[in-house]
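Workshop exercise sheet. Pairs work together: one partner reads the sequence aloud, the other fills in the structure field after running the prediction. Swap roles for the next sheet.
Pair: D.N. / O.F.
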Amino acid sequence: MSGASGGTGGAGASGADGNPAKEVREEDSFDVEAVAAWLDRGPIAEVRQFPGGASNLTYLLRYDDGPDLILRRPPSGTKARGAHDMGREYTVQSALAPVFAPVPAMVGHCTDESVIGSEFYVMEKVDGAILRRDLPESTTPEQADALCRTFFDTVADLHSVDVSAVPALAALGKGEGYVARQVAGWTKRFADARTDDTGDWSDVTGWLDAEQPADVAQRLIHNDLRLDNLVLRGLDEGEPEVAAVLDWEMATVGDPLMDLGGALAYWVQADDDEMFRLTRRQPTNAPGMWTRAEVVERYCARAGLSVTPEQWRFYEVFGVFRLAVIIQQIWYRYANGQTTNPAFEHFGVMVGYLEQRCRQLLAGA
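Structure field:
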């Protein structure tokens, strides 16, 4: 790693306390001196990498004098068109700051790929805790319930932002037809990322195409809502607060129920089958945590939306399909030698499981 006096990596896209960064992986290293010169804040004393997440790469930049910063950049290798958009992440968070408080403060966006070989942006580090697979042992069911309420109240608050009043956010929208564009777009992404072990998903994609509803609204949506994309404070006191929402690379203007469906594709509850429980990355199965059905009911009540269980099935199936495409895109990179990260070695198996899960949902299971 050029110019680094150390190098270690960490946890997702945050830099929050309690999620230690670790040594920078060789394939993810960059010219630290070049970044220091671009930032013009003096020498960077140490760089560490956050190991969580499977999309954009996130680093902690430590200074001897001055606050720590966070750098975000795309991964190496072939990337889906429109993915890993550093400019989008930077612009969305900059524009959101006056109207939606829990976003990190932006420092700068570098479009000159000659600096480190790709675009990148830098933001201030937000102190707090990021939840991973399990809640702290001391967490009570009441605290878990409060966490769910805070999370989905924050989601509803995000979805209530008046994008028409913020030109940079309004520019993200493409008008009505968001659901149709998503079905077509993710189906194409899946086809473009097929590997020799990819199954036949034509029944699933055909059903999604035939059953897609009209958009329920045009709202600002995050498109990657997970507990490990939140920086939290106050959980131990039973009064959790979202200090920051992270990872805005897929944010856009679209249907809020599609955003919720994408979030619940990751929401593994205690009574799910064994294979799905093995995929759990969030503490969503803990006592006091809401079920997916409870999330939908309470979110819709707060957001002023109405959806029946049969109507919800489309959003649930699409959310699982979309997750499978995301994992397949990463598996494609791994299978073709574009990344050697051992965390991805079983992603092909996971895509196969999600194929079965979609069919179970189609059958009404």
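Discussion prompt: The domain at 141-362 is CATH 3.90.1200.10 (Aminoglycoside 3'-phosphotransferase; Chain: A, domain 2). What would you look at next?
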